[in-house]
Write a structure and sequence with these properties.
- This protein has one domain: Immunoglobulin-like (Sandwich).
- It is about 10% helix and about 35% strand.
- It contains 1 helix and 16 strands.
- The longest helix is centred in the N-terminal third of the chain and has 17 residues.
- The radius of gyration is 21 Å and the shape is globular.
- Copper (II) ion binds next to loops.
């Protein structure tokens, strides 16, 4: 009992000194908050966040949910289908090229993502379905919420590289920012402007194409 009382205050002090929180806000060229941006944090001393049990992109009302998913390198992502119609998920991306068979329910095999980078995905049957899988080596990552904000906690002191990108951005590459968190910092905030952002691809007008002609997404 006595030794416990001695240890606990020590733990509390070290936690208070070294666990900073960081709020990252992403904005567009006009300074408006940008939701659905990917934010990653790198610091050599940073332990990777635990992998969430399931990485998946669902299909609901002929849209992908979520629109932006971040996964660590080597994750496998499943594509369940909550719609009554069948879907066929594909990507032409250099980071990961794949195509599922036409499927409903949970028939589609999970897809492995061994390379880092942005993988735009579509559905071969429904042109207005768009989503993005961002595959990262960064130990910490998040997608900004409706207020354009990503929050990180339990950050040890050190030099950080904060990186952000938005899947609809018009300029190539990510926006990077260096940040030092000292042992006395508690709440840190930073704002990253991602420049010009294009239109939501899900709102684009589409033609209905014959699914038989488009059944092989690599034949174009
Ligand atoms: Cu579809």
């Amino acid at each position: 009992m006595q030794s416990r009382l001695l240890i606990i205050p020590g733990l509390l002090v070290s936690t208070m000194l070294h666990a900073a929180e960081l709020t990252v806000m992403t904005t567009d060229q006009q300074g408006a908050p940008l939701s659905q941006a990917v934010v990653t944090l790198n610091n050599p001393a940073l332990a990777a966040q635990p992998r969430s049990g399931k990485a998946e992109v669902d299909q609901v009302n002929t849209q992908f949910v979520p629109h932006v998913l971040v996964v660590p390198v080597d994750s496998s992502v499943s594509f369940p289908n909550s719609d009554n119609t069948r879907h066929q998920v594909y990507s032409f991306s250099a980071v990961k090229r794949f195509s599922t068979n036409l499927f409903s329910g949970r028939e589609a095999e999970p897809v492995q993502f061994p390379q880092p980078g942005l993988v735009p995905i579509g559905c071969n049957i429904h042109d207005r379905m768009h989503a993005y899988i961002y595959v990262t080596n960064a130990p910490r990552y998040a997608v900004t919420d409706e207020q354009g904000v990503a929050r990180f906690s339990d950050l040890p002191a050190g030099d950080y590289r904060v990186e952000a990108l938005h899947p609809w951005q018009l300029e190539e590459g990510s926006t990077q920012h260096s940040l030092v968190i000292t042992a006395t910092d508690a709440d840190m905030q930073t704002n990253l402007s991602l420049g010009r952002i294009g239109p939501d691809p899900r709102a684009a007008r589409t033609q209905k194409l014959n699914p038989l002609i488009r059944s092989n997404p690599f034949a174009r």
